[in-house]
Amino acid sequence: MSASIEDAIFDLLSKVEPGKTVAPEDVARAVDAETWRRLLGQVRGTAKGLARQGRLVVTRHGKPANPEKLKGVYRLRLPLEGDVIPSAAPDAETPRDVED
């Protein structure tokens, strides 16, 4: 994990109201305003690691997302009491009753 990216994430989140999010692009720009696009992969990796530790929530469509299955557009926020983060474990198949 990049310490400067982690610092930028928590610095930006400290400036928003609880429950509000920041964009990964804003994090990358805070680290390096000129070549921020090159940092987006590192921001994603750092965010996933922090989410695994429970220090950060990755959201998609305004809801907590499984950091292991993260694809597409996402945002970052601090954890809130009662957050339910989707499990990284594969979905267990539930046996179905079969009527003959």
CATH architecture level-2 label: Orthogonal Bundle
Major sheet: size, sense and barrel closure? 3 strands, antiparallel
Structural class: alpha+beta
Order of helices and strands: HHHEEE
For the biggest β-sheet, the strand order reads: 2-1-3
| CATH topology term | Arc Repressor Mutant, subunit A
**Low-confidence sequence ranges:** 89-100
Provide an overview of this structure.
With 100 residues, the chain is α+β, with helices and mostly antiparallel strands. The protein has a single domain (3-77), classed as Arc Repressor Mutant, subunit A. The chain contains three helices and three strands. The protein has helices spanning 3-14, 24-31, 40-52, and strands at 57-60, 63-64, 75-77. It has a three-stranded antiparallel β-sheet with strand order 2-1-3. α1 (3-14) packs across α2. The longest helix is centred in the middle third of the chain and has 13 residues, at 40-52. The chain is globular, with a radius of gyration of 16 Å.
Q: What are its keywords?
A:
disordered C terminus; 3 strands; about 35% helix; 3-stranded antiparallel β-sheet; Arc Repressor Mutant, subunit A; alpha+beta
Summarize the structure.
The protein has 3 helices and 3 strands. The protein has helices spanning 3-14, 24-31, 40-52; strands at residues 57-60, 63-64, 75-77. It has a 3-stranded antiparallel sheet.
